[in-house]
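Translate sequence into structure tokens.
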Amino acid sequence: MKPFIRFCLLVILILFMRAANLSAVSNDSHIQFKEIKVKTGDTLWSIAKRYAPPGSNYLVYISKLEEINEVKSALIYPGEILIIPVNDSQRKKE
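Result follows.
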């Protein structure tokens, strides 16, 4: 009987994890993109602080910025155009 219970628990766990993963993907579907022009003194960290969703991890947001913009280093320059992810609630505030 124990192997059957373990199997059932494993199936439930897998289904739960899959549901959580689908939920995370559906939250990403509300993300849109915006172009910003880098200003003097801007850093990826300051941009993350300004545009990352409340409560999010800035390092993860910076990684997304680097990936989206194909940034090879943390150096950005005034006048550069960056594409940043913003969610619906951030767009309503602007």
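Note: The chain has one domain: 2-93.
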